UniProtKB/TrEMBL annotation:
The organism's taxonomic lineage, starting at the top: Eukaryota, Metazoa, Spiralia, Gnathifera, Rotifera
GO molecular function terms listed in the Swiss-Prot or TrEMBL record: FAD binding
Organism: Adineta steineri
InterPro entries per the UniProt record, alphabetical: FAD-bd, FAD/NAD-bd_sf, FAD_aromatic-hydroxylase
Name assigned to this protein: FAD-binding domain-containing protein
Span of domain FAD-binding: 6-307
């Protein structure tokens, strides 16, 4: 059978999109894949994430497992502390939230970027996004926010739990009540490390739903800092936090100072480091549960389709692999996607 041409657009250059592109590009199909990313450059921010279960085997199949190992955060376990910094419970790798394959999100995304850029049939476009989609009986017409237009056989929304592309693929009725805020805000950033810092995920819960955490980096000059605000009830929002997030990073940092300045443990150190952090960002913990992931020639993938809490990276890797198998087999056998 001669190769069939498949022109694909993927919105989102995080984890799910490049992983899906990597596998699809290696099928018998003659693929031309474009990955469009809203950020002006590859994102360097992100917390420590783990790879577990079947996702490990998929990473091995991508021949990236040694790259993951070499970029391990060096975290050796999880320790729970009191306000004085005294450990009252500690768990080693495998017995805690720390997994065998622990890596910074930016490092994993970087591995996928390197792997896909070298394939020849994948291109990245930064600083742009999908503005509108128009499906026909044979393709999808796409207009980008930058003004350009193009036509694709398949469009994939892999731009995160707050995906803008998702609402262009699925209608309002399908999306109703599918985004569920879990009542928690978490700020992530890097701060300078100290020689005395242990190779542990240090976890301190303060009063009023506040949480402070420190995690080691492979780069021994820095470490990951996390500030969590957990509401009393699932779905409840904090109007002060919401307002600060809407205004931007500096307002959010000022808000964090007011919330955490008397929290105890390493609050002062973390807040001082936050003031100088260039990789600061804050997100809402959420779950996304869609009744379906597809609409004719369009697919929703990763956190845009099934955002979870704690296993999102592994699930994104696994589903990207299985969806690749479905679409490549379907197109090879039928020559169409609908």
């Amino acid at each position: 059978m001669s190769a069939l041409k498949l022109k694909v657009l993927i919105a989102g250059a995080g984890i799910a999109g490049p992983c899906f592109a990597n596998w699809l590009a290696k099928t018998r199909l003659d693929t031309s894949i474009t990955i469009v990313e809203r950020s002006p450059s590859p994102r360097i921010t992100g917390q420590s994430i783990d790879i577990r279960g079947p996702a490990v085997e998929i990473i091995k199949g991508m021949k990236l497992i040694e790259g993951v190992r070499s970029r391990h955060t060096t975290e050796e376990g999880t320790a729970f502390l009191n306000s004085s910094g005294k450990v009252f419970a500690q768990f080693n790798v495998g017995d805690s939230f720390t997994a065998e394959y622990e890596i910074l999100r930016a490092d994993l995304a970087g591995l996928f970027l390197e792997a896909t850029e070298g394939l020849g049939n994948i291109q990245y476009i930064y600083g742009d996004s999908v503005k509108s989609l128009e499906q026909t009986n044979k393709d999808i017409n796409v207009t980008f926010t930058g003004g350009s237009k193009d036509t694709f056989d398949l469009v994939v929304a892999a731009d995160g739990s707050t995906s803008k592309t998702r609402s262009l693929i699925l209608d309002d009725q399908v999306l109703k009540d599918t985004y569920n805020f879990l009542g928690q805000y978490t700020a992530f950033f890097s701060i300078p490390s100290r020689p005395t810092d242990p190779k542990l995920w240090q976890w301190y819960n303060a009063s009023k739903g506040l949480g402070l955490m420190l995690r080691p980096h492979r780069n021994t000059s820095t470490m990951g800092a996390y500030l969590c605000i957990t509401m009393p009830a699932r779905g409840q929002r904090d109007p002060v936090v919401e307002d600060a997030m809407d205004k931007g990073t500096e307002d959010t940092k000022r808000m964090m100072h007011k919330y955490f300045e008397n929290a105890g443990w390493e609050a002062k150190r973390i807040l001082d480091g936050m003031d100088h952090a260039e990789d600061f960002y804050i997100s809402r913990a959420a779950q996304v549960k869609l009744p379906k992931w597809t609409n004719e020639r369009a697919l929703v993938l990763g956190d845009a389709a099934f955002a979870t809490f704690g296993v999102g990276t592994s699930l994104a890797i696994e589903i990207s692999f299985t969806q690749k198998k479905f679409y490549s087999n379907y197109f090879i056998h039928f020559g169409v996607l609908i």
